[in-house]
Amino acid sequence: MSFEIALSGINAINTSLDSISNNIANAGTYGFKATRANFASLYAGSQPAGAQINSLTQSIDIGGGAMTTGRGLDAMVQGRGFFVTKEASGVEVYTRVGIFGTDQDGFLVDASNRRVQGYAVMRDAAGVPLEGAGLGAMGDLQVPSGQVAAQASSRMQYVSNLSSDWVAPTAAFDASNPLTYNSSDVSVVYDSLGSQHTVTQYFVKTATNQVTVHYTFDGVANGTPQALNFGTDGKLATVPAVTLAATPAGATAMSIALDYTGTTQYSGESRPSVNAPNGYASGTRVNVTLSEDGSVIAEYSNGQKQKVGTVALATFPNEQALQAISDTSWTTTSTSGTPLYATPGTGMAGELTVGAIEQSNVDMTSELVNLMTSQRNYQANTKVISTADDMMQSLMQAV
Question: Would you say the pTM of this structure is higher than 0.90?
Fold first, then answer.
């Protein structure tokens, strides 16, 4: 019986050594979670029969350290949750390794070339993203690889302090004569083809609390001069509704609404604080980055940024029951439960740290101590077998 008991101990220690060796081998593997072999006693009825490995416990709930990379498509999960990826066969695989990139078709993929799953951006019939429309359907995240279309300017916010110290010019306004106006400012706008145009505003003091604005579009007078009337508190008495119209050659007719909300007439320097027309020229994609809320942002050569989707995270009722597979990934089992999908930082899902990768959570000191302990236990069990063998030989010689 002693032979069998000692043999069961050696077999259990060998299994434990496999776990320890695997942990040590993966001490430098991103997103790796250490496992622990759990010993249990064996009994044959009421008689002791040795030891066995009852289970392997994964330390999924223990996070690894953060390694800063500074790369815009690297991310690590702080807390619960796994990145959701899909293999070519359609099987979902879950990982903590947030090393992403785009393939030749623009799909967001992980380091094993599996497509990352997430929520698409809601778009209108023309394909333009809808702001504040919520999350779209979950599936493969694809970043458009072509040019982003130009957007014609339709509004312009302008805020400035039009100094009360100005003196009204004595001559009639003439855009070519700086002595006929107190100040001017130029704004760059875009037509439907993405071509740039200039809107120039000329500010002329016409009364104690009044400034009249004259407009030109590409140097040609445009619209009707607009009087800005200020109260004794230096603020606009009323915000006028100003619209400039123009039809550039070959482009769609433009209508630009000007908003002077916040413009003042205080003593001192005249300085614009906001000069912000909307619209932009066409551009090509130059970069893709992730945000802490999981948003996938495409950056274009015209300076525009567009959200193209949101990375999904999966949590499970029983994470310990997930089955570990190659490439530092996991698959579901019958006891892990159905995955619960969410965006980073919502529900039970953890938040993202962008520009960093989760390191292995293996504690090398503990593993080396466990390795020495296993060696001593192995030696003890082999000593039992050797001693039992000597006793049997002595018994046979005595007979």
Answer: no
Cβ–Cβ < 8 Å for 265, 162: yes
How many residues belong to the chain? 399
Nearest 10 degrees: Cα torsion 193, 194, 197, 198: 150
Q: Determine the residue type at 54.
A: N
Side chain identity at residue 235, one-letter code: K
Q: Are 360 and 28 in contact (CB under 8 A)?
A: yes
Residue span(s) of the chain under CATH 2.60.98.20 come to 155-277
pLDDT more than 70, % of the chain: 96
**CA max distance for the chain:** 136
Tell me the C-alpha distance between 28 and 145, whole Å.
35
Contact 113, 253 (CB under 8 A): no
DSSP 293: T
CATH number of 155-277: 2.60.98.20
From CA 302, how far away is CA 280, in angstroms rounded? 7
